[in-house]
């Protein structure tokens, strides 16, 4: 199946470069380009994109606001957003995930990393660049101030009570950045069983993908941030 990609960046030159790269892949195609967040949201609806490569700093509606709008729209439930920006800083990583992004990647990444990010996001996995470590995310989630309240979803954290013991165990492993195969080995079950638990946890918690499971695990206190 061809992955439909939408490019959202206010720099036409960068969009052109990304288009050439994406269109060179047999399993991908660029279905639209947006120069601001509002246009990205509109095109995501019109073009039924699978993945949106979203810049953060754009005029008018910025990338975070656009990501939040896409994530909140039930009609765009299948759209995954990968934040692609020059400003690979801690606060942006956390805000991106809270807004509903499936991943975060610096613009200085290698072409292969970008293409891999698109495929990972399209499969519903969480993608974080090497600079965005799980420990860093955990610290910022734990230390978030009042200004971050708008990005929180208390109801999702409260739904933890609906998880089974095994689903909680799997959620802890997901928050640790482990793959289904790694979790299967740790818990001595099959990868298919892990996938089933992950999918059930996502459904119960209202999470779009694994990235949102990570946010929920830390915000709810199920997983505690590391001190280092």
Looking at this protein, list some descriptive labels.
50% helix, DNA-binding, single chain, six-stranded parallel sheet, alpha/beta, DNA-binding response regulator, globular, 228 residues, NreC/VraR/RcsB-like_REC
Q: How are strands sequenced across the largest beta sheet?
A: 2-1-3-4-5-6
Amino- and carboxy-terminal Cα gap = 42 Å
Cα Rg = 17 Å
Topology, number of strands: 6
List SSEs in N-to-C order: EHEHEHEHEHEHHHHHH
Strand content: 5-15%
Low-confidence stretches: 129-133
Instruction: Give the number of helices.
Output: 11
Helical residue percent band: 40-55%
Q: What does the main sheet amount to? A: 6 strands, parallel
Q: What oligomeric arrangement do these chains adopt?
A: single chain
- Helix-strand category: alpha/beta
Kindly report the average pLDDT value: 81
Shape annotation? globular
Organism: Streptomyces prasinus
Domain Response regulatory: 4-122
Domain HTH luxR-type: 156-221
Keywords: DNA-binding, Phosphoprotein, Transcription, Transcription regulation
Structure overview:
The protein is an alpha/beta fold and about 230 residues long. The protein has eleven helices and six strands. The chain has helices at about 10-25, 35-45, 65-70, 90-100, 110-120, 135-140, 155-160, 165-175, 180-185, 190-205, 210-220; strands spanning about 5-10, 30-35, 50-55, 80-85, 105, 125-130. It has a six-stranded parallel beta sheet with strand order 2-1-3-4-5-6, with helices on both faces. β3 (about 50-55), α3 and β4 (about 80-85) form a beta-alpha-beta unit. The longest helix has 15 residues, at about 190-205. The chain is globular. The chain starts with a strand and ends in a 9-residue tail after the last helix. The model is unreliable at about 130-135 (pLDDT under 50). It comes from Streptomyces prasinus.
